[in-house]
Design brief:
Strand order of the largest sheet: 8-1-10-9
Shape: globular
Number of helices: 6
Distance between the termini: 23 Å
Number of strands: 10
Order of helices and strands: EHEEHEEHEEHHEHEE
């Protein structure tokens, strides 16, 4: 199970969207046309040109009129990827997992197109999306070229508050436990989501449904 992990401390996220923009810049993804639909979150969801998205959720608060919940979302790089299991039933090796745990797609676009529907349906968070420009399904690839060269992911490098972190499994889990203890001391509660299932660990201090839809 060793390899690279992300750790996201939602208590430190200010929704600056630095991670979202860094992802676009590194992957040379075009900007999408945005609109006002009642939320500061734009685009409204992950799409073929957006591999990482900062979600904005507004909820009533007893102490204040409202409170914001910010959540940077992208592929979780599951330890046992359900998308790979499902895709393999359609066509072999449409999805591979590299030596540090990144869940990646084959460069064979014909094979990937054949497995695209199965991949999308199998993801618990409905993360992958079809790219009309690339004619294939796309998502976060853990900046695997950067990581292979000894660099951090573009998103984690851009985070100014220490909310989004990236490194070795032991390092990230140690940081997660330290931040969890600090959160419980400060807020009286906290938990790490999906600790045994994915390579993206989230620290939250409220019900996870307030930050994002719960996995299917």
């Amino acid at each position: 199970m060793a390899g690279k992990f992300f750790f996201v401390d939602t208590t430190r996220c200010t929704a600056c969207r630095g991670c979202q923009i860094a992802c676009k810049q590194w992957n040379k993804l075009p900007a999408g046309k945005t609109m006002q639909y009642g939320s500061y979150q734009n685009p409204a969801d992950l799409d073929g040109n957006t591999y990482r998205l900062v979600r904005f959720d507004e909820h009533p608060s007893k102490k204040n009129s409202m409170v914001w919940y910010f959540f940077t979302e992208a592929c979780r790089h599951c330890l046992a990827p359900p998308c790979k299991k499902k895709a393999d039933q359609v066509v072999k090796d449409a999805i591979i997992v590299n030596d540090f745990g990144a869940v990646l797609y084959t460069k064979d676009t014909k094979k990937l197109k054949k497995a695209a529907k199965a991949i999308k349906q199998a993801c618990p968070w409905s993360i992958p999306n079809w790219s009309n420009k690339k004619k294939q399904i796309v998502k976060c690839h853990m900046c695997h070229e950067r990581v292979a060269a000894g660099l951090k992911t573009a998103c984690s490098k851009a985070c100014p508050t220490g909310a989004l972190n990236f490194g070795e499994e032991a390092e990230m889990k140690k940081l997660a436990n330290e931040r969890l203890a600090a959160a419980k001391k400060k807020f009286g509660k906290g938990e790490i989501l999906d600790l045994e299932d994915v390579r993206v660990l989230y620290l939250v201090i409220d019900e996870q449904s307030k930050y994002r839809p719960v996995a299917l």
